[in-house]
Amino acid sequence: MSEPSSTEAACRLVRLAETGRPGVTIHHGGRPLSALAGDTLLTALLCNGVTLRRNEFDGGPRAGFCNMGACQDCWVALEDGSRLRACTTEVWDGMRVHAPDDAP
Amino acid sequence: MSGEAPGILIVGAGPAGTRAAETLVAHGMAAILVDEGQRSGGQIYRQPPQGFTRPAEALYGFEARKARSVHAALASLGEALDYRPGTLVWNIEKGIAHTLGPDGVGRIAFDSIVLATGAMDRVIPFPGWTLPGVFTMGGAQVALKAQGCAIGEPVVFMGTGPLLYLVAYQYVHAGARVAAVLDTSRAGAAIPVLPGLLWGGRTFAKGLWYMTWLRAAGIPVRAGITPVAADGERALEAVLYRDRRGRERRIACTGLGIGYSVKSEVQLAELAGCEMAFDPLAQQWLPEADEDGRALKGSIYLAGDGAGVAGADAAELRGRLAALALLADRGIAIDRALQARLRGRLRRIMRFRNALERALPAPFHLARTLPDETVICRCEAITAGDIRQGRALEPAELNRAKAFTRVGMGRCQGRVCGPAAAQILAAARGCDVAEVGRLRGQAPVKPLSIRAGAAAAVEDRARAASI
After folding, report:
1. Distance between CA B381 and CA B398 in Å, rounded?
2. Taking CB atoms and an 8 Å cutoff, what residues of chain A touch B133?
3. Which residues does chain B have within 8 Å of residue A14's beta carbon, measured at their own beta carbons?
4. HEC states along B126-163?
5. Which of residues 28-67 of A touch B (CB under 8 A)?
């Protein structure tokens, strides 16, 4: 895997509406990220250009797919070791998401 | 009949489950409605989280009135319905539904069950489809409807079916940059089944309206294309396709929505004991049921897209019809004239849906000819070549292929890759897709944490010991 050359190479969701919601802060690998109350964890991470995970088998970067709890391709870990599905979990202020060493 | 009769469980709070619940409550029946979502409406009428402010017109367009009506119907039942949102049913066996909800694992005993489990996108893999930035069409719609986000900038939509033009329209309408709409079907394909399509005049007219609107808005709409690849290093950078003349084209995009209509979610019906039959039009194994949704055996009723895809309007009718069938089976007086009217309206929609499926068939031939190195199972990175190896195993059957290659064994249980894997195996064997069988439904139908699974096992042991 090559190093990211620029932030343009990241997968990003783009906010078009509903931006007046209260802000919350989540942490990804210790790094604070801005999100909005009511964001799913998938939305919050992808709006910040954070790719969710690597596939365990081919090592490829993954950033969700079905966005409705069916494909199971967006499971991430919290720092407390619990695992959750990013597309069906709403963020909370102070949520601490684990960033693996090989994070894409 | 008093409201005391126990034991009716409804799974799914979309349009079908909602109308089933409403009908049962109206006849004085007690029922439990469990739904995986936090808010009712299903996928089609999905409600955004608290604190979102767009009105129904912005979220559901032409369908705003219907969405409001379905949401209001459930809300109006209040205490008369035991409604449990945020609750997954992960197994059904011997009259017990195993659940995972806000309070952990649980069991619900039932003597009748209405399954309104809905549908998900029908996916045909192609090279690069696992790249970040590639979403299902439904997923792209959820991002916009429930989160106010576009899946990239610019976005391309590729596939076929009613969602293709609807989602593209919704994106442009919401201010997203849409670089192109790429349709694998040829526009002219609709003509041979036009008499059937006329039955659903309004729905068909809406589809044409979206397409015309997009063209008028200057969005390139290309029909008769063939997907080639999603291209990018760490994330999607462009989509490659061949136009109808066979020339390869490239469009830069950071978001790509793909889908070929939708397919039924049937795992729970199968676990509950429904007989399954191959539906050649849907190219999918579906639970067998009569016109009202009554399964062939047991007190099982099927409603909505989970019983074969027919759309949201049909789902409301099928929810009502399934509930009426259940009531009639219990000897409760129902309005037969109403039942006849609902059946008539459903038949009209079904004629249209059948014509539409014939006009816009999912191009599964694209799966059969994929290069060997293409990933088919995105859970475990199993390729088309791996699956083709499975043909050497006689008889070449999908569950054998699963055992040897692990296709369909990953976290999604074959929901995403199953249809394409079946097509690839059938093509490699040179047989009809029905002959390779289907991936058998397995519990849990969605992943459980070890903690939840262990808690369920402990509870089971305690129960066994106390008998």
Report:
1. 17
2. 11, 63
3. 149-153, 176, 255
4. CCCCCCCCEEEHHHHHHHHHHHCEECCCCEEEEEECHH
5. 37-40, 43, 47, 51-52, 55-58, 60-67
Residue B247 CB neighbours (<10 A) = 8
Is B20 in contact with B77 (CB distance < 8 Å)? no
Quote the pTM value. Answer: 0.93
Q: What residues of B are in contact with residue A8 (Cβ under 8 Å)? A: 254
pLDDT tens column, B6-19: 599 999 999 999 99
β pairing state of B255-260 and B155-160: parallel
Residues 6+ apart with CB under 8 A from A23: A34, A35, A36, A37
CA A92 to chain B, closest CA, distance in angstroms equals: 13
CB–CB of A9 and B237 under 8 A?
yes
- Provide the 3-class DSSP secondary structure of residue B379: coil
* CA distance linking residue A80 with residue B357, whole number of Å: 48
| For testing contact with chain B, the best of A15, A16, A92 (most B CBs within 10 A) | A16
How far is B152 from chain A, CA to nearest CA, in Å? 5
Interface A:B, Cβ pairs < 8 A: 160
**pLDDT tens digit sequence for B73-130:** 999 999 999 999 999 999 999 899 999 999 899 999 999 999 999 999 999 999 999 9
Tell me if A2 and B233 make a contact (CB, 8 A cut-off): yes
Res B202: pLDDT: 64
For chain B, list the domains and their CATH numbers. 8-120+263-332 (3.50.50.60), 123-260 (3.50.50.60), 365-436 (1.10.10)
Q: What is the mean pLDDT of each run of 10 residues along chain A (104 residues)?
A: 45 92 96 97 96 93 96 95 94 95 79
Of A4, A47, A67, the CB nearest to B139: A67
Give the start-to-end residue ranges of the domains of chain A: 22-97
- The upper half-sphere exposure of residue B283, i.e. CA atoms within 13 Å in the direction of its Cβ, equals 23
CATH assignment of A22-97, given 2.60.40.420, 3.40.50.620, 3.10.20.440, 3.20.10.10? Answer: 3.10.20.440
Q: How many Cα neighbours within 13 Å face the side chain of A44?
A: 31
Residue B140 has pLDDT above 70, yes or no: yes
Q: What is the ipTM of this complex?
A: 0.93
DSSP state of B330: T
Range with lowest mean pLDDT among B87-91, B103-107, B379-383, B398-402: B398-402
Query: In chain A, which residues have their Cβ closer than 8 Å to the Cβ of B254?
Result: 8, 11-12
Comparing alpha-carbon positions, the chain A residue that sits nearest to B54 is A18
Q: What is the pLDDT of residues B228-283, one digit of tens each?
A: 999 999 999 999 999 999 999 999 999 999 999 999 999 999 999 999 999 998 99
Tell whether A93 is within 8 A of chain B (Cβ).
Answer: no
**CB contact (8 A) between residue A82 and residue B449:** yes
Select the residue from B147, B233, B267 to test the A interface by mutation, using most A Cβ atoms within 10 A: B147
